[in-house]
Amino acid sequence: NKVELPPPPECVCVKLSGPASLPAEDISTNSNGPKQDSLFDDDPEDLFAEATEEVSLDSPERDVLLSDGPSPAITPITPPCSLITPHIDMFTHCSFDEIEEEEGGDSFDMHISVSDPEKVGDGMNAYMAYKVSTKTSMSLFRSQDFSVKRRFSDFLGLHSKLASKYLHIGYIVPPAPEKSIVGMTKVKVGKEDQSSNEFVEKRRSALERYLMRTVKHPTLLKDPDVLQFLESSELPRAVSTQALSSAGILRMVNKAAEAVNKMTIKMNESDAWFEEKQQHFDNLDLQLRKLHASVESLVCHRRELSVNTALFAKSAAMLGNSEDHTALSRALSQLAEVEEKIDQLHQDQANADFYCFSELLGDYVRLITAVKGVFDHRMKTWQKWQDGQILLQKKREAEAKLQFNNKPEKLQQAKDEMRELEGKVQQGERDFELISKTIRKEVSRFEKERVKDFKTIIIKYLESLVQTQQKVKNIIIIIFSISY
Amino acid sequence: MQEGLDDGPDFLSEEDRGPRAVNVDLQTDATLQVDISDALSERDKVKFTVHTKSTLPNFKQNEFSVVRQHEEFIWLHDSFVENEEYAGYIIPPAPPRPDFDASREKLQKLGEGEGSMTKEEFTKMKQELEAEYLAIFKKTVAMHEVFLCRVAAHPVLRKDLNFHVFLEYNQDLSVRGKNKKEKLEDFFKNVVKSADGVLVAGVKDVDDFFEHEKTFLLEYHNRVKDASAKSDRMIRSHKNAADDINRIASSLYTLGTQDSTDLCKLVKVSVAALQKIESRVAADEDLKLADLLKYYLRESQAAKDLLYRRSRALVDYENANKALDKARAKNRDVLQAETSQQLCCHKFEKISESAKQELIDFKTRRVAAFRKNLVELAELELKHAKVTMT
């Protein structure tokens, strides 16, 4: 591990993710610990009960130490070490959660599927329309089972609406799948080949994942835009998502400006939680990107391997044919060929699984970018607040000067301005507190989701690996018996 | 790197000697046993210690060793090829040059990129590279040994004087590699030979056996070449995939140290195992399949050469016959024509005789080798599948 870790602190807060009924074991001296535990344990709602708080551990041995408690499963997340400083906002944070959790009494039962890609239109104006079907028992929706037709730009439009509404107050809005001019052009032009089919399939599953992630977020689910997207049959065309539109270019310029801004904001971070989380996400980002690159390269090489194996099998078969002196020789060559065929099957299977893994990793790389964006927004809010404060200070000085110089009319004006400013500063502070609170919640939700997602896919991969190995083994046994 | 390589002797001596003679099925004959007991890899060359055990009277001792380099093997092979007496035999193909360049390059790249990787990644990659180097090293030793064993097993070639000198002469044979001029000469000779080969191939053979062999060998040679190339590509892809899995394993490891859930640990372990398997499968396939095919590529080329020489002799014989007839008709130089015809006839018959035997031997050897290797390959794959299951 390249990261240089500071020496571990003495105080450690452990959070367990297990069934809600278990008592949360809290070994820490941290004051806000118990309050949070009891709160989360009260709630039967699966979504909110499990909060995995981070542990400042830097070696696996400590896992063993801490697991001597009554709970069966400890899932500590280990970021670089730091102390969790008590923060006054934690109390208000708790009460906010209380309200949220009561609202979420509706059990999360919703399943969205994106299917039936069809090509609508012709030539360069063609597009793929996808059927978005929703099955749910939630009271939020008009019916239990409905579907609509949407195109890709509709998805992008939804994302941009949600982003403009929620990103700056600290919600992690899942990013939409990326535009791909090359891929779409091939589809538009009408090439019905392997790669364009693959592209459509890739896009379809990415859109499905995107929608599922969006609705899993309790706040986003209730957003009227989301509801409209899922339910209404006609949707106004989102023109501003076109790649070469003026809005697109404006977006790019804004992004560049923001990047420059980010470098200049030097935030005085009072809350260590945020600092370590930021670092945690930076690390995670780096590693996921690396992993993603490796997995993609593996998928590519595996494909190459299956192609080459097929070629070799043919070649071996021909070799066997030319050995017409000995029937045995021929049998052996055929053996080699069959064996290669299995190998190829095996490769294809493994390839498919790694491919899913690679897609998931890609999603998470983008998600983490969104998370980092949220952190950046927090910084901006802080900046605004600070700027307001500085301005207020200046005005105060100006007022004092005026008072000293005894200019009543200007004084009144100054006083009014100051009052306004004070109000703004207070609002800025409130905004900042709010965004910090929201981010904390979001991050813990995000971490939980991430662990769940990765678990699922890894289990799936291992299962299929076992299956294919079994098949391969069976076939090899058969071959063996033939050869003897 | 030199220190690591000088471990060569240790590895070889404790290594299981059995699978070395993978490609040929030879009877071990007590009268003359040759093997490579030791090998040392220096900067640019490899030094083989050739160890001979013999009960033949023409050797001074019963058991002795000499140190030889690759060039000396090539010299021996060429001396066989150039010797007219051996025209009727399949000359065992020369061992390929020891080629560590690719490995060396990779090692260099690794050294340069040392700063950008974590300590564990670096050590892991270094280990792998060293293993690869060792594998290439073992392979080249095996190739040289196979060559010597084939010569020793051949009833006529084993009696060759050059061979005995090669085995016994303590000093350096001062054989230099061919310089540019000689290489150019060789190149031209080859061109002429292949042109000639085409001409000669057109001649229909009287003997059915040989005609059949000719067509068979031609086809076989081409297909072996094709299969060899494809298997190389396949193995390269396999190696690439194994490298990727390596990288994935190390990324997962670093990721896992952050998120130390049990599942992550399981994933780490399984991916590590998978990676080991993949690279081992690639290595095994390489050894059993690719080497086999490459060797038979060279052998079938040697067999083709034999047939070519025979056809050449046949053409010469027929030409001599025609010349004799012409001479008889003109009644000039009849004696000369007669002797040359006799010579050609004699040569041709000698070649045909030995060639027949040689080709039959070749077939037997080939079938046995293929069978052995394919069975071994299947066994290994089964073993791997079992391991992955667990």
TrEMBL record, chain A:
<protein>
    <recommendedName>
        <fullName>Sorting nexin-2</fullName>
    </recommendedName>
</protein>
<dbReference type="GO" id="GO:0005829">
    <property type="term" value="C:cytosol"/>
</dbReference>
<keyword id="KW-0653">Protein transport</keyword>
<keyword id="KW-0472">Membrane</keyword>
<dbReference type="Pfam" id="PF09325">
    <property type="entry name" value="Vps5"/>
</dbReference>
<feature type="region of interest" description="Disordered">
    <location>
        <begin position="22"/>
        <end position="47"/>
    </location>
</feature>
<keyword id="KW-0813">Transport</keyword>
<dbReference type="Pfam" id="PF00787">
    <property type="entry name" value="PX"/>
</dbReference>
<dbReference type="InterPro" id="IPR027267">
    <property type="entry name" value="AH/BAR_dom_sf"/>
</dbReference>
<dbReference type="InterPro" id="IPR036871">
    <property type="entry name" value="PX_dom_sf"/>
</dbReference>
<keyword id="KW-0967">Endosome</keyword>
<dbReference type="InterPro" id="IPR015404">
    <property type="entry name" value="Vps5_C"/>
</dbReference>
<dbReference type="GO" id="GO:0031901">
    <property type="term" value="C:early endosome membrane"/>
</dbReference>
<keyword id="KW-0007">Acetylation</keyword>
<feature type="domain" description="PX">
    <location>
        <begin position="108"/>
        <end position="237"/>
    </location>
</feature>
<dbReference type="GO" id="GO:0015031">
    <property type="term" value="P:protein transport"/>
</dbReference>
<feature type="coiled-coil region">
    <location>
        <begin position="404"/>
        <end position="431"/>
    </location>
</feature>
<keyword id="KW-0966">Cell projection</keyword>
<comment type="function">
    <text>Involved in several stages of intracellular trafficking. Interacts with membranes containing phosphatidylinositol 3-phosphate (PtdIns(3P)) or phosphatidylinositol 3,5-bisphosphate (PtdIns(3,5)P2). Acts in part as component of the retromer membrane-deforming SNX-BAR subcomplex. The SNX-BAR retromer mediates retrograde transport of cargo proteins from endosomes to the trans-Golgi network (TGN) and is involved in endosome-to-plasma membrane transport for cargo protein recycling.</text>
</comment>
<dbReference type="GO" id="GO:0034498">
    <property type="term" value="P:early endosome to Golgi transport"/>
</dbReference>
<dbReference type="GO" id="GO:0035091">
    <property type="term" value="F:phosphatidylinositol binding"/>
</dbReference>
<keyword id="KW-0175">Coiled coil</keyword>
Automatic annotation (TrEMBL), chain B:
<comment type="similarity">
    <text>Belongs to the sorting nexin family.</text>
</comment>
<dbReference type="InterPro" id="IPR027267">
    <property type="entry name" value="AH/BAR_dom_sf"/>
</dbReference>
<dbReference type="InterPro" id="IPR036871">
    <property type="entry name" value="PX_dom_sf"/>
</dbReference>
<keyword id="KW-0175">Coiled coil</keyword>
<dbReference type="Pfam" id="PF00787">
    <property type="entry name" value="PX"/>
</dbReference>
<dbReference type="InterPro" id="IPR015404">
    <property type="entry name" value="Vps5_C"/>
</dbReference>
<dbReference type="GO" id="GO:0005768">
    <property type="term" value="C:endosome"/>
</dbReference>
<dbReference type="Pfam" id="PF09325">
    <property type="entry name" value="Vps5"/>
</dbReference>
<keyword id="KW-0813">Transport</keyword>
<dbReference type="GO" id="GO:0015031">
    <property type="term" value="P:protein transport"/>
</dbReference>
<feature type="coiled-coil region">
    <location>
        <begin position="310"/>
        <end position="337"/>
    </location>
</feature>
<feature type="region of interest" description="Disordered">
    <location>
        <begin position="1"/>
        <end position="22"/>
    </location>
</feature>
<dbReference type="GO" id="GO:0005829">
    <property type="term" value="C:cytosol"/>
</dbReference>
<feature type="domain" description="PX">
    <location>
        <begin position="26"/>
        <end position="173"/>
    </location>
</feature>
<protein>
    <submittedName>
        <fullName>Sorting nexin 6</fullName>
    </submittedName>
</protein>
<dbReference type="InterPro" id="IPR001683">
    <property type="entry name" value="PX_dom"/>
</dbReference>
<dbReference type="InterPro" id="IPR014637">
    <property type="entry name" value="SNX5/SNX6/SNX32"/>
</dbReference>
<feature type="compositionally biased region" description="Acidic residues">
    <location>
        <begin position="1"/>
        <end position="13"/>
    </location>
</feature>
<dbReference type="GO" id="GO:0042147">
    <property type="term" value="P:retrograde transport, endosome to Golgi"/>
</dbReference>
<keyword id="KW-0653">Protein transport</keyword>
<dbReference type="GO" id="GO:0035091">
    <property type="term" value="F:phosphatidylinositol binding"/>
</dbReference>
